Amino acid sequence: MSKITKQEFENYNKQLFSIFARMMATSEFQNASKEEQERCEKFFGLLLDQIQSGNIFALCASCKMAEDVLNEDVSTIKRRAKEHIIARGYYNPASPLTLAEFRERKKKLGYEKFGKL
């Protein structure tokens, strides 16, 4: 298992750009109001910018959208994202965190206020 390189993030950015372009060509997108279309375009742009900068969460969210909207097969990207998450130490499927360890990590990272929002 290895981390995703900067070049791979850029390649995924290009792949997802074409997927987002096809999403904007769907009838559902075309029938939406101009305001809604602008919001979606800004959101797609934000996701693509974050993917290019190496945000793994944005990559996973984009893959989920591609699967849901266009029934695209992005399993290879998802597999690499999972490898990246494991290699970075975010998650270890062999020994998942207990609830107490999860709460401690959450507190250490400052996410206790996040749940109150």
Number of domains: 1
Amino- and carboxy-terminal Cα gap: 35 Å
Task: Based on Cα principal axes, name the global outline.
Answer: globular
| Radius of gyration from the alpha-carbon trace, in angstroms | 17 Å
- Kindly estimate the percentage of residues that lie in beta strands according to DSSP: under 5%
Show unreliable segments: none
Structural class: mainly alpha
* Mean pLDDT rating: 85
Protein name: 7817_t:CDS:1
Organism: Racocetra fulgida
Structural overview:
- This protein has 117 residues and is mainly α.
- It has one domain (6-116).
- 69% of the residues lie in helices and 0% in strands.
- It has helices spanning 6-24, 27-30, 34-52, 56-70, 75-87, 99-109.
- The longest helix is centred in the N-terminal third of the chain and has 19 residues, at 6-24.
- The protein is globular.
- It starts with 5 loop residues before the first helix and ends in an 8-residue tail after the last helix.
- This is 7817_t:CDS:1.
Task: Record the SSE blueprint.
Elements: H1 6-24, H2 27-30, H3 34-52, H4 56-70, H5 75-87, H6 99-109
Helix pairs in contact: 1-3, 1-4, 3-4, 4-5
Structure summarized in a few sentences:
This protein is mainly α.
Descriptors:
117 residues, mainly alpha, 0% strand, globular, 7817_t:CDS:1
